[in-house]
């Protein structure tokens, strides 16, 4: 494997980070939106270039200041990191055009420039988490993304957005504290914070209680951040009361990056030891994943607010991803990794579509959505595509990743687990059908003379994600191959 030294890694993080204060200086809604849009698309272009570099060379590294690790800070991108960067940057690029009209509708004009400032900081933090090769710098970027996320959620129209943001702040702070305690314990034993160095030292110290305690703190802290059941209580209200564009962006990116951190800890830092033999992590992760898949789906069935319904659906989908990680095989990891990408497309489409409905009608409950499929056929057609994907219908992205997980379970002779994966998908049929029913099989509560108007600037992003879902559902070769490559790279030392 040839390592490519690529300064584009630095630009990936620095460009949105420096653009954020520019939005503050402009203090203009249109100016801030223009800067944020240009930067997000530039970052997306950089992510594609870096993906091609990683596919060619296997890895890209940039040593800041020319200092070699562990004395200096290095940014590292492997196939998994490149895949996650592509997800975050791609969603960010699609989000910005959608945001213009949605934000004007839901956020006070004098706060709009602050909104784009926070969104760029969040984007920079998420990308920084993905490329850093240092455990402490990961914490720094984690806090950048988290603090900006708290502000973004609090900008929701409903006053309950403030309490949702506060709850997330408390839970997020606990998660970050657990993570940094784990990092401190590892540093106490190993004397390094660099992921590559930790990987080489870990086999010699894995039996120490300090390292086992560090692993426990890291696992709990990261699980809080990715909203793994039962550490998910901050997520439903945050997604429900945040501005529509914030909900869509976070649902498609933030939890995926937290999953990436969990993968990095388990399969890089502890990659040269059999962590599941040293610590009872596998049964715990499988139990939590199954609980998320079933209990969160059951909770989604009873929700009347569609955003809250989709929020509980996100918790269930996180369960599928973590289940793939817990299987600890190439097939299982591949299924979990590809589901990160597929879920980003499906949930991004669904939340974008509901955000458009809120923009046009102000409706968000099932009762208010009666007949909306006839008033907004183009928008709701995209929601249908996303809903079918969440169920796992063939020719949708959700089918590809769920089938990969079923295959991985069967390879391990875990027939009951494979059956549970299929059974949990049936629960998704129920809550998705509830939306389909009120949208298409009921007459509108209020008769409208014409269909609700949605700006083209919102429809194009919605159908960009919906079109991507259709394409990668019918032809998942690229994403599956990339996920397989990332899984093999992670499992190489496990």
Overview of the structural elements:
This protein has helices at 8-26, 29-57, 79-106, 112-131, 135-154, 160-190, 195-205, 209-225, 235-241, 244-269, 275-278, 281-301, 306-327, 330-361, 372-375, 377-391, 397-411, 415-440, 456-474, 477-491; strands at 2-5, 58-63, 74-77. The chain is mostly helical and 494 residues long. It has a domain at 280-494. The chain has a 3-stranded mixed sheet. α8 runs antiparallel to α10, α12 (281-301) packs parallel to α18 (415-440) and α14 runs antiparallel to α16. The chain is globular. The mean pLDDT is 87.
**Residue runs with pLDDT of under 50 for 5 or more positions:** none
Could you report the average pLDDT, rounded to the nearest whole number? 87
Record the strand order, biggest sheet: 1-2-3
How many runs of DSSP E, i.e. beta strands?
3
Helical region count?
20
**Largest beta-sheet characterization:** 3 strands, mixed
**Percent of residues in β-strands:** under 5%
Helix content: over 70%
The general outline is globular
Query: Strand pairing plus helix content: what structural class?
Result: mainly alpha
| Cα gyration radius (Å) | 21 Å
Tell me the distance between the termini: 18 Å
Order of helices and strands: EHHEEHHHHHHHHHHHHHHHHHH
Name its key features:
single chain, 494 residues, mainly alpha, three-stranded mixed beta sheet, 20 helices
Question: Topology of this protein?
Answer:
Blueprint lengths: L1 E4 L2 H19 L2 H29 E6 L10 E4 L1 H28 L5 H20 L3 H20 L5 H31 L4 H11 L3 H17 L9 H7 L2 H26 L5 H4 L2 H21 L4 H22 L2 H32 L10 H4 L1 H15 L5 H15 L3 H26 L15 H19 L2 H15 L3
Parallel strand pairs: 1-2
Antiparallel strand pairs: 2-3
